[in-house]
């Protein structure tokens, strides 16, 4: 049964509401939430009728879309899921779903050879593997690195649409060093994934470029009446060119880092460079190699080198060498104790 885009937005909104068991949801609350969602995503501001939401709930309860949602009414007024862990997003794929996804994979596969679509290879492989495993009830043959327990992933969709639609957000956020969370107006510009953690770059009403980890966000509220401040701080297309990780201050300059890798680990570092700027400077008689990269020196780069422990020695710049040496001495002292 075909379902239009607006209906899907309403179903997803109702699902999001009913999954929040810390609030009691009346039919009027669900109408307001769906109206807000349609205005946010589609610019529709004419409102939604009571009958429409009632029909949506009936559709979600039925087998027509495969949801069979356990929506119940209690106290003759409030709606909730009778099963605490239920969500329409957890609904198993139907045979029709699998057929459509199979066709989609076949279409996407045609684009993999084109330069503009080279980054789609990973996505196509994921889709193909998932469809095959579900259809054949077999064990997947591709295991991608993931962290399903990571907090903050629920905010990805909201932040993405805020960036696309240039919408201001109110964010409640607690950094690792803060004793409590703070609330501030935030203008989001770019989402970035690094080692299975997600970050959003943006700025407050005043101040420098910020990098917020999504797993440290407590809540996000779109501010429809707050004008959006355009990004004039950085170019997303070039910002990460000289960066390992996600930490970089606007205006911070890259430095040349030279390091020596022992013979046993040289093949690994050559085939998996620490940074794309990596070049070979000298091959020594003991088969060790001196490399050079041009990068921003940050915490992620330090952790990268410290992860090689005794197999890599950083030679320059001196300030970076001293910082690493201090950490290594401190670590040795901790182990000696």
Structure description:
Helix 1 (5-19) packs across helix 2 (27-42). The radius of gyration is 25 Å and the shape is elongated. By secondary structure, the protein is α+β, with helices and mostly antiparallel strands. The model has no long low-confidence stretch (mean pLDDT 85). The strands form three sheets. It has a five-stranded antiparallel beta sheet with strand order 7-6-5-4-8. The longest helix is centred in the C-terminal third of the chain and has 19 residues, at 318-336. It has four domains: 5-89, Arc Repressor Mutant, subunit A; 95-136; 153-223, SH3 type barrels, CATH 2.30.30; 255-336, Alpha-Beta Plaits, CATH 3.30.70. It has helices at 5-19, 27-42, 50-61, 95-109, 121-136, 156-164, 266-271, 299-306, 318-336; strands at residues 25-26, 71-74, 78-81, 168-173, 182-194, 197-203, 209-213, 217-223, 255-261, 279-283, 289-295, 312-316. The protein has nine helices and twelve strands.
Tell me the structural class.
alpha+beta
Do you know the CATH architecture of the largest domain? Orthogonal Bundle
- Could you name the CATH topology of the largest domain? Arc Repressor Mutant, subunit A
Unreliable runs: none
CATH class of the largest domain: Mainly Alpha
What fraction strand? 15-25%
Q: What is the string of SSEs from the N terminus onward?
A: HEHHEEHHHEEEEEEHEEHEH
Q: Tell me the number of strands.
A: 12
Give the N-to-C terminal Cα separation: 68 Å
Write the layout of secondary structure elements.
Elements: H1 5-19, E1 25-26, H2 27-42, H3 50-61, E2 71-74, E3 78-81, H4 95-109, H5 121-136, H6 156-164, E4 168-173, E5 182-194, E6 197-203, E7 209-213, E8 217-223, E9 255-261, H7 266-271, E10 279-283, E11 289-295, H8 299-306, E12 312-316, H9 318-336
Antiparallel strand pairs: 1-3, 2-3, 4-5, 4-8, 5-6, 6-7, 9-11, 9-12, 10-11
Helix pairs in contact: 1-2, 1-3, 4-5
């Amino acid at each position: 049964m075909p379902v239009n885009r607006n209906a899907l937005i309403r179903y997803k909104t109702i699902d999001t509401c009913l999954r929040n068991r810390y609030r009691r949801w009346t039919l009027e609350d669900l109408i307001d939430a769906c109206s807000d969602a349609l205005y946010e995503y589609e610019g529709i501001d004419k409102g939604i009728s009571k009958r429409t939401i009632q029909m949506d709930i009936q559709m979600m309860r039925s087998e027509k879309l495969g949801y069979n949602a356990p929506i119940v009414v209690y106290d003759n007024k409030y709606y909730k899921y009778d099963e605490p862990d239920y969500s329409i997003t957890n609904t198993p794929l139907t045979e029709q779903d699998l057929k459509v996804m199979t066709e989609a994979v076949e279409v996407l596969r045609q684009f993999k050879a084109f330069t503009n679509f080279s980054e789609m290879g990973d996505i196509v492989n994921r889709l193909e593997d998932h469809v095959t495993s579900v259809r054949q009830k077999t064990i997947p043959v591709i295991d991608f690195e993931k962290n399903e327990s990571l907090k903050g992933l629920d905010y990805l969709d909201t932040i993405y649409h805020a960036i696309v639609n240039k919408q201001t957000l109110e964010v409640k956020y607690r950094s690792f060093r803060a004793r409590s969370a703070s609330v501030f107006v935030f203008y989001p510009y770019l989402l970035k994934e690094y080692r299975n953690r997600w970050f959003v770059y943006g700025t407050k009403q005043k101040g420098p470029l910020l990098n917020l980890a999504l797993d440290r966000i407590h809540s996000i509220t779109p501010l429809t009446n707050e004008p959006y401040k355009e990004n004039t701080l950085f170019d997303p297309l070039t910002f990460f060119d000289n960066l390992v990780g996600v930490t970089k201050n606007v205006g911070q300059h890259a430095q040349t880092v030279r390091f020596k890798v022992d013979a046993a680990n040289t093949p690994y570092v050559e085939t998996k460079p620490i940074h794309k700027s990596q070049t070979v400077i000298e091959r020594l008689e003991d088969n060790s190699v001196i490399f050079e990269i041009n990068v921003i020196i940050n915490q992620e780069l330090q952790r990268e080198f410290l992860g090689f422990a005794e197999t890599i020695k950083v030679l320059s710049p001196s300030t970076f060498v001293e910082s690493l040496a201090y950490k290594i001495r401190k670590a040795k002292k901790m182990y000696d104790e």
